[in-house]
Structures are given as C-alpha cells and as structure tokens.
Amino acid sequence: MNPSSSSGSSPIDEISTKLPSSSYKGVVPQHNGRWGAQIYEHHRRIWLGTFADETEAARAYDIAAQRFRGREATTNFPPLTETDPERASELVFLSAHSKTEIVDMLRKHTYHEELRHSRRNQQLGRNVGGRRTGTWSERELLFYKVVTPSDVGKLNRLVIPKQHAEKHFPLRNEEKGEDSNNGVLLNFEDADGKVWRFRYSYWNSSQSYVLTKGWSRFVKEKGLNPGDVVSFWRYFDGSDTMQLLIDCKVVQPGEESAASSSSNVQMNESEDNDDPGVRLFGVNIASTQAGSSNYNNMDNS
DNA sequence: CCTTGTGTTGAG
DNA sequence: TCAACACAAGGG
Predict the structure, then answer these.
(1) What is the CB neighbour count within 10 angstroms for residue A228?
(2) What is the pTM assigned to this prediction?
(3) Please, what's the b/e burial string for A138-170 (b: 16 or more CB within 10 A of its CB; e: otherwise)?
(4) Is the pLDDT assigned to residue A300 strictly greater than 80?
(5) Which of A119, A125, A158 is nearest to A250 (CA)?
(6) In this model, does residue A90 exceed pLDDT 90?
(7) What is the DSSP letter of A183?
(8) How many whole angstroms separate alpha carbon A237 and alpha carbon A203?
(9) Chain B nucleotides near the protein (CB, 7 A)
C-alpha cells in the first residue's frame, strides 16, 4: 500500500519536520525530497547513492542485494524469471564485476548503461569469417549454471545439470559408458567468436553428464571462479545448422584494476572479488531449477 | 547555500 | 541487519 497518507502525521506538524519513510527495503529519505539507497554488510553501511525516484532507489538496492547476497536475496521487486534470457545475461554481467564496481555504477547511475553495453558485446559472432552469425536477440537461451568450486577446480570438468543435459545435449546409449572413448565433441562459440571444443560425456560412476577435455582451458582463459555464471545458447543460421554458443563473464586481465579504477567508493578490503569459500550466487547448484520457482521478493502490496 | 552520505543509536 | 535522525563534509 501507499504510505502516502502519513498514518502518523498528527496534528502538530507545521513544516514537515519528519521525513517520510520509504516502504522499500534499503531506501531512506533525504531532506531534499530525494531518496537514498543503502545496503549493509559486515556491520557497516554501504551507500548506493541518491535518487530522485523512490522506486529507482529501490531498484538500486535490489541490484546490490543480488550482487552482495546472491540470486536468492530478498528484493523489492520480483526478479526476472530464471529462464528469461535477460536474466542469464544480467547474471553474467553481475558475476563479471566486483561489488565495488557495481556499487560504483549504482552511485553514478550508470548501471543500466553498462549492462546494455555488456549485452551488446555479448552479441556473438560479430562478422566472424565475413558473415554475421547471430545477434544476442536471436540467440535462444538453453540454460545457465552458477559454477561450483569443483567445476572450476582441478577436476577439469563441468557437470551439466542432468535435467539440462538430457534435454539439450542428449547422448545416445552407445555414446555413453565409462570408457574415455565415449562421448561426443561439442563446439561452442564464445562472445569473441572464438570456438571452443569440449568433450561431452556421461559418467556412470557419478551418474552425471560432464564437459571434460577442453573445459579446463576455458576456465583458465576466462578466469572463472566459483559463483560465476556460464550460459549456453544456440541459434540457427540461415540454413539448417544449429550453432551452439557459450557465454560467461568477460576475461579479467591478470587480476583486478577494476575495483581501483574509477571512483573510490570506500568498502573495506575483503568484500571485493572473490571471497573465500562459496559465496556470491553460491547456491548449492546441484539441483538447479526446473520448477523451483523459489523467489523471495518482499510482498509489499 | 544545498545535497550527499557518514555518525550514531535503538529496535529487531 | 536495518532504518531514523542529526549533522558534518563536499561542491558550486
């Protein structure tokens, strides 16, 4: 409901001496009628900037909440559907930036701009081999996964959630089996038009579908860390061939440069890039969605 | 000035 | 963790 009618605005209140509180989480009123957004972490407040529109401040909080607390974070507005391509691309975008960078963008009101730019670059195959191969809008999202520590660790393999594997990359029985001779080779094009070839097979021992040979190279080159998002797409070019695409956060040069760059939003050490353990979107991936529509937005009716 | 956003506190 | 409140800091 709208708090407009100051329920408590009692008799004695000449010139609004009280500020109207917001009904949105993380949103606080400013004396000039604007709205501030803030989120807390490790006991301290992280200022997300001020906004003329109360709902904009609420959205800023939502974005920060997802970056700081993961996709399950409580938000003011309902998040995009998990199967929405926009959702996948935004998660890729979020995992590609440090908390500091995201906060920076929010404070400068450049988040949406940056996200758009990111999506533009996510367009795959820009004139690869002389022909345009598939724009972002033409892509069809198959699924995405928030990678686990083991997916980017020494096991050199990525477990494809069974549900998605069987739906999008079905293996014929003769292609299954323990033998390392089994499986198939799948080619994926990344955002730079580079083609990656992975061996895809089924491990009877763990009853799981995996990408093995070629995966570790991908992890290394992309600098993937636990919690990052990898998405799989496809598109059909003019003829009848289906092209598979793979997308993930942009390669982070050597290390950071990010957090330090632009402005200096103060936010103590630890926070930034990777934390120890399984954080950030670190949802126990094992059983990814399907029909699990477990959102948790504030039901502020 | 006016606006931002930090200090600080008390409640949950 | 979170917002209310006060007010100092910062920019023009």
Answers:
(1) 24
(2) 0.65
(3) ebebbbbbbbbeebbeeebbbbbbbebbeeebe
(4) no
(5) A119
(6) yes
(7) S
(8) 32
(9) 2-6, 8
